[in-house]
Amino acid sequence: MEETGKPLGRVEALLEAERCLYCFDAPCEKVCPANVPIPEFIHSIKTNNLQGAREIIEVAHPLIETCGRLCPEESFCQSVCARVKIDSPIKIRELHRYVTDNTEPSRNLIIPVRNKGRVAIVGGGPAGLSCARELGRLGFETVIFEKKELGGIPMQQVSNVRFPEKIGKREVRFINDNFVTEVKDKKVQSVKDIGNGFDAIFIATGLQGELDLDVKGTNLKGIYNASELLKLARASIKTPVGRRVGVIGGGNVAVEVATVLKQENSERDVELVYRRSLKELKAFKDEIDEAVNVGVTMQFLAIPVEIKGIDSVTGIVVRRSRLSKPDASGRRNFEEIPDSDFFIPFDTIVIAIGQKLADYFPEIEKTERGLIKVDDNLMTSTKGVFAGGDIVRGASTIVESVADGKKAASSISNFSNGGENV
Amino acid sequence: MYKEKDISIDFLGIHLDSPFVLSASPSTDEMEMAYNGLKEGWAGVILKTTSIKENVVNLKNPMMSSFGSMSEKVVGLGNIDLISKYHINDIEERVRYLKKEFPNKIIAASIMGAKKEDWQSLVLRLKKAGADLIECSFSCPQGSMGEEAGKMLAQSIEATEKVTTWVKEAADKIPILIKITPQVTDIVEVARAVKRGGADGITASNTIPSLLGIDINTFEPYPSLFGESSYSGLSGSAIKPITLRTIAEIAKNVDIVISGNGGAFTWEDAVEFMALGASNVQFCTLPMHYGFRTIRDLKSGLAHYLEDMGFDSPLDIMGKSLGKIKTNEELPELYVRSEIDTEKCIGCGLCYVACSDGGHMAIQWESEKRKPSVDEDKCTGCSMCMQVCPVDAIKMREKLDDSIHYFIEKR
To answer: In principle, which of A105, B138, B239, B338 could form an S-S bond with B154, CB 3.0–4.6 Å?
Structure first.
C-alpha cells in the first residue's frame, strides 16, 4: 500500500522554508525533546544545502527517519512556532521529512575508537538505539539485549503505510552497523541476567505485554490484541478479522489499529469504542484525522460491560458514560450513567487499552505506578544502572524516548569518567 | 458604481489620462500588444526602440533571466534583448493606426540611430506619422550604434549633447525625451548635456548593466545560450532604489522634465518617483510579469491616495521630497533610540541577533519570556533592528533639541 501523507515537493518545501522566521533562541528547538536545531536546518533548506540540513538534524537526533514521519509535531515544535502569531505554524515535520527523503546518511561520519568502556543496553527500541548511537559517538562499546527485531514500537506497532518498513530498517541498520558492537538475543529480566564486564547498564525495555479487558466474554473467538494485528499488517499478512470490527481503547495504538483494519478492507466497518470523548482521546491529531479520513467511525462515551456471543463474538454491551471532573492534568474523567446499557453488534473485537508493566528488575526501586524510578541523570536506585523511555515515563512519544537515550548516554559517559564499575 | 477621481496630468503639453505609460519594451513590440495595453487603460505607449531599415537586429534567445526567492521569483529581471526587429517602416504604420484608434492616448515611439541622417530621418518619419512624442534610446545596455558601438551613448557627455541637438533639430515642435543610463560617473552632467542639446525631457532611466547569475554546477552564466551568456540589462524592483537616486539627482540639479522609468512595480512606487520630481512613470517589468491588467490597481491606488492626502492632481505630489534630500554633512546629529512595541512583538528574537552581531549589542534578550528590550546606554539608533522585525514592531525615537520625531519604516 502507498505511504500516507503526501511528501512536500521542492517548490512547496522552499515556500514553506521561506515562511520560517529563523527565530533566535527558537521556541521550537527548545521544546523539542531531542533539541533539533530547527531554524538552522530550515535555513539550510532555503539555501539548497540539503545534506547540511540532514547533518544538523542527524547530530541532534539519532532516529531522524522515524521522527520525520511519526513525531507528533503539534505536541512539540509546531505548538510554539512564533509564526502562529502572524498566520500559521511552519510545517516543521514535513520539512524534516523533506530533508530525510531527499538525502542519504552522511559518508563523512566519524566513528571513534571504542575504548571508553562497555555498556549494556536492554531493549533495542528508540531509547536503546539512541543511547547506543550516542555512546558509540562518545567512544563506548555497546551491547544491545533484544529478543525481537531492533527498532521497537515504531517497527512493530505502526502501520507500514505511516512508516514504511524499508525506511525503518535502513535507519536501524545504519545505527547498528556504525554504533553498536553486538546485539544479544537474550531475555533480560534482572540486572543479574546481563552478566559481567559492563561499565554501565541502560534499561530501555519499554512496557511489556498488553492490558486485558476485564469483562465477561473475553474467551470468545474473534477477540484479538491490537499488537498481534499490527504485527501481521506490518508484515503484509492478511489479518483474520471480520466485517464488523469494534476496537476498544482510546490511545494511539487503538486509533492506529482501527485505521489499519479499515485500510486493509474498506468494505469492513471499523468502530472505535471509547469511554471518554474525542477531546480526551490520547492519540495524535494527525492519526485521528487519518482514521476519520479512511472512514473509521467512533463511539464515544461508551464503557464495555460484556462481550456477547456463543462460540464467537456477536457484539458488545456497553454502558453510556458522561464526562465528570478533570483530573490533575486537566483531562476530564468519566462516570457511568445508570440504566443506559445498549448493544453494538460486532463479529470481531480488538483490544487496545494499553500496555502493562512487567515485573522485571525486582532489585530496582519503582514508582507508585510501578515504573522505574530515576534521578535527574536517569540513574536508577542501583549505581551505574540507568533507565529511560516508556519504562520510566509510561507510554510516551518516540522523541521523548530518543531524548532519554541521549541523556542516558551523556550521564553514562560522565559516570564512567568517574571510573566506577557496576 | 464609484465616482472616478481625475488622475490626468499634462506632460510636455500632452494630456495623459493617468501618469502611467507603457515603456519601450517587449510589451509594446507587437502591434496587437500595444493595442491591448491601451485598451486595458494605460495612458500611453512608447513603442519598442526602432531603427532604420538597413540596421540588422540579431536577437539572441533565451534572452530573459531573473533572480529572487521561491515566493518572489522575479525581484530583478535581466535581459540580453536588443532593439526591436521591426524597422521604422512598420513602426510609422503602427503609430498611424494606434493614433487613429486611440486619439486621446499618447502614442510615442523610441528610436536609435548611428549617423546624424539616421536619427533625423527616424524623427521626421515618426513626426509625419503623427507620433505625440519621440524617445531616444541613449542607454541600451547592449550598446548604441555608431562610432562607439558597444558603449552607451549617454556615457559620453559630448555625444549626448551632439545627438540630442540633431534629434531636436529634426523634431522641431514634437517633444523629445532622451533615455539615459545611471551607469555614469556623474548623472547630473549627462542631464545638463541633454538640456543643452535642447531636449524637452529626460527618461530616467533604463535597465542597468548586470550579470544575472551562474549555474554553480555547470558554471554557465545566465541566461545560458548553449552554456554561454552576456551581460544583461537589469530591471524590476531590484533597481528601484537606483532609479530613485537618479531621478532625485537630476531633479535637484537640472531644470528639465523627467519621465521616471526603472523598477516601479506599484502605484506607491510611482508616487515615490513623482515625489522626487518625475512627471510621469513608465512601466515595463510589471506588465511583462503580470500583464496589462495591472493598470487597474495603479490607477485606483493612486486615486485613493490622492483622495486620502487631499491632493487635487498627481502633479501635487511632484518634488515633495526633493527639499528633504541633503548631503550627509548637512544632516543633524540626533539622539536616537530604538523603541520596541511589546504588544506587537512576537518574540522571534531577530532584532536581538541583528543588534548583537550587526548593531551595537544594545538589545537584551529575556529567554524565558522571549522578550527583547533596548539598553538605551548602548543603543546608537542605527535602526538595524527595525529593518529585520517581521511585524513592524520597532520604531526609532529621534530627539533634536526638545522635539521628538519618530522614524517608522513601513512595509
So the answer is: B138
